[in-house]
Amino acid sequence: MAAQIAYRRIYEESSPQDGQRVLVDRVWPRGMKKEDAHLDEWLRDVAPSTELRRWYGHDPDRFAEFRRRYLAELRDTEHHEAAGHLRDLAAHDTLTLLTATKDVDHSQAAVLAEWLATRKR
């Protein structure tokens, strides 16, 4: 099992303790060069749908509903394969989920980290 599932901004310095570094945003982070990202994977298919992302707009007042809708999306066929791949990564290595979002505690990365932690037991 993974020693840890973490999440943070992609703009922060990478660390050997990150383990597998996976970007979980649907769009590439503004101003980030691919060679500077130090990614193992960009798993855009696990990100929230464009419609959900636009509705949420990173409004913390909408986070509870965003979380509920996003967890429902993770069960649909569009997200199923990518979500399963993340579960496999979390079961075998330390995993750091990366996002460009400024408020990482109210992001899909936070929801994914919690979701993965409950499924690796």
Task: Give a nutshell description of this structure.
With 121 residues, the chain is of the alpha/beta class.
Please provide a written account of the structure.
With 121 residues, the protein is an alpha/beta fold. 42% of the residues lie in helices and 13% in strands. It is built from 5 helices and 4 strands, in the order E-E-H-E-H-H-H-E-H. Strands 1-4-2-3 form a 4-stranded parallel sheet, with helices on one face. Strand 2 (20-23), helix 1 (34-37) and strand 3 (41-42) form a beta-alpha-beta unit. Helix 2 runs antiparallel to helix 3 (63-74). It is globular, with a radius of gyration of 13 Å. The N and C termini lie close together (8 Å). The relative contact order is 0.28.
List the helices and strands and how they pair.
Elements: E1 5-9, E2 20-23, H1 34-37, E3 41-42, H2 50-56, H3 63-74, H4 77-92, E4 95-99, H5 108-119
Parallel strand pairs: 1-4, 2-3, 2-4
Helix pairs in contact: 2-3
Keywords:
single chain; 4-stranded parallel beta sheet; alpha/beta
| Low-pLDDT residue spans | none
Query: What's the alpha carbon Rg, rounded to whole Å?
Result: 13 Å
Mean pLDDT, all residues: 92
Structure summary, number of beta strands: 4
